[in-house]
Design brief:
The termini are far apart. The chain is α+β, with helices and mostly antiparallel strands and 233 residues long. It is built from eight helices and six strands; from the N terminus they run αβαββαβββααααα. The protein has a six-stranded antiparallel sheet. It has one domain. Helix 1 runs parallel beside helix 4, helix 3 crosses helix 5 and helix 7 runs antiparallel to helix 8.
């Protein structure tokens, strides 16, 4: 079992010509809190009937959920899905504790496993072990490539139709919440300013991107395309 083979299968790093993505990450940090993030992990399986995302510790201060897509989607659609998950399952969590990848300016997550600046390692972890990393969300030593490959070997893609269906299911129960999370500039570089206006659902989020003249034109076009399944807008 080869780790790189599993990473290439689930989370390919090669960029697509149109900037679409296949890896989506939702991170909860400062502090790590698996009991809260576990609600998302369970919900996508029981409520949305999606494959379980991989679980990782970021090596610094939190847990991550890694979603694998069977086919690339526009960044705006990926962002809409993550935003809808946040609204459904993490509405009470302060925005500063959340990071969504891809971000509003196309930021991508750091690869896992990897050595962090604090000398600790990020790593994928099995579901039954995620909770024990709440106090120390890292590994002190490099994780075994074979063990990491084994964790990922059972992961499955989200099929295109399943992603669209999940977005539709998320809409009715998405309550109004606070503004979407902003990536940390000190660790991720300068980010596009997040809107201070809360979004009731993914459709409103896409509309806000499409109509925001400060957003790059290609992203606004992607947002318009992603709105097509929602009908008139």
């Amino acid at each position: 079992m080869n780790l790189q083979t599993e990473l290439d299968r689930l989370y390919p790093t090669s960029a697509t010509p149109d900037g679409s993505v296949r890896a989506l990450v939702l991170e909860l940090s400062q502090p790590a809190d698996w009991s809260t993030l576990a609600a998302v992990w369970r919900g996508v399986q029981t409520d949305l009937e999606l494959p379980a995302p991989a679980i990782a510790v970021n090596g610094v201060d939190g847990h991550q959920l890694w979603f694998a897509l069977g086919e690339p989607v526009a960044e705006t659609q990926a962002m809409a899905f993550l935003e809808a998950l946040r609204l459904r399952y993490l509405g009470g969590v302060p925005a500063k504790r959340l990071r969504l990848f891809p971000g509003a300016n196309g930021l991508t997550p750091k690869s896992v496993p990897a050595l962090q600046g604090n000398g600790h390692w990020s790593a994928y972890v099995a579901p039954d072990l995620a909770a024990i990393f709440s106090d120390e969300p890292w590994l002190d030593l490099p994780p075994s490539p074979e063990a990491q490959a084994k964790v990922l070997s059972g992961m499955e893609y989200i099929k295109p139709g399943a992603l669209v269906a999940a977005l539709e299911l998320l809409q009715p129960a998405a309550p109004l919440q606070t503004a979407r999370p902003v990536p940390h500039a000190d660790t991720l570089g300068a980010a596009h300013p997040a809107s201070a206006t809360p979004h009731a659902n993914a459709r409103e989020f896409l509309l806000s991107v499409m109509n925001d003249t400060s957003v790059a034109l290609p992203l606004r076009i992607d947002a318009a395309k992603a709105l097509l399944p929602y009908g008139d807008h």
